Amino acid sequence: MELGRTLAHARKLMERTIRPGETAVDATAGNGHDTLFLAELAGPEGRVLAFDIQQDALDSTRVRLGNLADRAELILDSHDRVSDYVEGPVGGAMFNLGFLPNAGDRTVITRPETTVRAVHVLLGLLKKGGLITVCVYDGHEGGDRERDALLSYARRLREAEVDVARYELINQKGHPPFLVAFEKKKEFTEPTLMD
């Protein structure tokens, strides 16, 4: 695996946690790459919930899924409403923050308040040992605010309940993406924040 491939690292982590037959969440369907990957991991008995607020993204995802479309539920809604669609347990969840790649409107972006709320809710829904991966792209308008909100939230999680790791390249110019991974250590219905 190449160190610079943030998404490849996120997928390696997901391969370690999601088992056939489990439920997985693609919190930002985009063009469907992660939805397809999660559908393959979950297998024919599992299911994937793929969220996006843009119909174009869900249409692209449906095409990418091909004959695995029956394994995924494509949801035109914000990822912070995930508990309206699943009670748990969830094996794992993936986020790619920012805007829809190859889309015309780059003003439609993920937002700090919904992203943090979605991670918070998903931590409560995860199985023990389940993972959430968040690929953070902060080089666009609004990306810095979302990055800061996510990292502030992550630092406030109690270490007895959740391990949080940040993977990044430190010798690249510009704003290379980085990965934040959350691993649930014990059963709880809602994570506890430190004061």
Automatic annotation (TrEMBL):
Keyword set includes Zinc-finger: no
Keyword Transferase: yes
InterPro entries the UniProt entry points to: MnmM_MeTrfase (IPR010719), SAM-dependent_MTases_sf (IPR029063)
Protein name: Class I SAM-dependent methyltransferase
One Pfam family matching this protein: rRNA_methylase
UniProt feature coiled coil, ranges: none
Source species: Bhargavaea changchunensis
Organism domain of life: Bacteria
Gene Ontology molecular function, alphabetical: methyltransferase activity
SUPFAM superfamilies: S-adenosyl-L-methionine-dependent methyltransferases
Biological processes annotated in GO: methylation
Protein keywords: Methyltransferase, Transferase
